[in-house]
Each structure stands twice: as structure tokens, then as C-alpha cells.
Amino acid sequence: MAVRTTYECSSEGAVRHWEIPWTRLSNSVAPTPTQPAYVVTPAAERALRHGATGTILTTDILHPPSVAVVDFTRGAVYKHNLRNVLTYGGGPAEASWGAVNIGDPVYYDDTAATMPADYFLSTSPLNGAGLLNMLFGFVVASDPADAAAFPKAGAAGVSLTNVAVMQRGA
Hints:
Blueprint: E1 17-21, E2 36-38, H1 43-47, E3 53-60, E4 67-71, E5 77-83, E6 85-88, E7 94-97, E8 105-108, E9 121-122, E10 134-140, H2 144-148, E11 160-167
Parallel strand pairs: 5-9
Antiparallel strand pairs: 1-4, 2-3, 3-4, 5-11, 6-7, 8-9, 8-10, 10-11
């Protein structure tokens, strides 16, 4: 029996960068490098929060099908914009907010109607339709000075903040 020379998909240890067609990404209209990504999964998988999430590294629109290279590395830390919404009140309207602390779970929130540009992540486990949001990762401090700035984002009204997130990956 011969050993195949094409068995390895990645030779970079724990780093996982994969090309994903735009049509499989939740933000498939115009994925942009540095944005978080969620690979759309069947409803049964979503109910278990089983799905691949990561950070978009590059995009290619010149060679159909359009693809994005996504870093799915578990434990990779990237800075992302985050909405501190906790709950929605009947549809896409945000109902409650909370402070953001180190260790808080971060979800890929596909409540498109209320998303400001480039804010795909929130602290809400449910989206505006009451469906489970995919777990994206956890808030971490980017350095000691950043750690001293927590908690971030207030509890009164909608608040947006930029935080370091350790991604769950694939």
C-alpha cells in the first residue's frame, strides 16, 4: 500500500485557513477581510451551535466562484467590533444591553436588520428571530492596558465596542 502525497490539507500545525465560497457564508453579499465569518449550516446543526466560525483573511472576486480565505484556527485572537445586545424584543429591535467583560461569550449574530456596518458579533445567544446564534468565541484582553479597561460598553442603550475575541474556530 502506497502512502499518498496529497493527504495533508495543512502543514502549519494548528493553523486552519480554508477557501469558502461566498454563497456558504452568512455575510455572503460582500465578505471583507478582517470581518468575522460563519459558514451557514443546516438547521439541525445550528440548533446544536455546531458550525464553523472564523475570521476572513482575504477575498477573491476575480475568479468565479468568489471565495474568501477564512482562518478557522481554534484559539486564534482577533480584534472585532461587538454589539453588547443581550436580548431582542419581538423581531429585530434590541431590548436589553449589558457590559462586556473578559470571558464573556461572543456570538455570530445574523440579525441583519439592526446591524451597523461591520458589526456581525454580539453578546446575545439568540438572534432577532429567536433562533440560536452561533458561538463565535470569547472576549479576551489584548494586553495589560486593555485588561484594565474592562468592563467595556455600557448597559444603557445600544453600545458598540472593539474587543479582542478568542475564536472557537472549526
